[in-house]
Amino acid sequence: xxxxxxxxxxxxxxxxxxxxxxxxxxxxxxxxxxxxxxxxxxxxxxxxxxxxxxxxxxxxxxxxxxxxxxxxxxxxxxxxxxxxxxxxxxxxxxxxx
Length: 97
Known about the structure:
This protein is mainly α. It has helices at about 5-15, 20-35, 35-55, 65-70, 75-90. α2 (about 20-35) packs antiparallel against α3. It is globular, with a radius of gyration of 13 Å.
């Protein structure tokens, strides 16, 4: 079994390579199998990206809420990454590319 850091790194790599199914599996492993506050937050960001790009946004529906547990309240970065994650998994009227 991979460590949470290695699973997160694989998720980043696979997302960058466009291998979204592999990224999703690695991100889920990093985000849900072990609780390490700093890495779990980063893994949730990769999870949202991979789920949306692999056309499985339902697998990341809870990630934005969980992400808020792993970010510093009030920071611009936290607000931005949470808003981005919520937008990506939303079922709004907007068109996705």
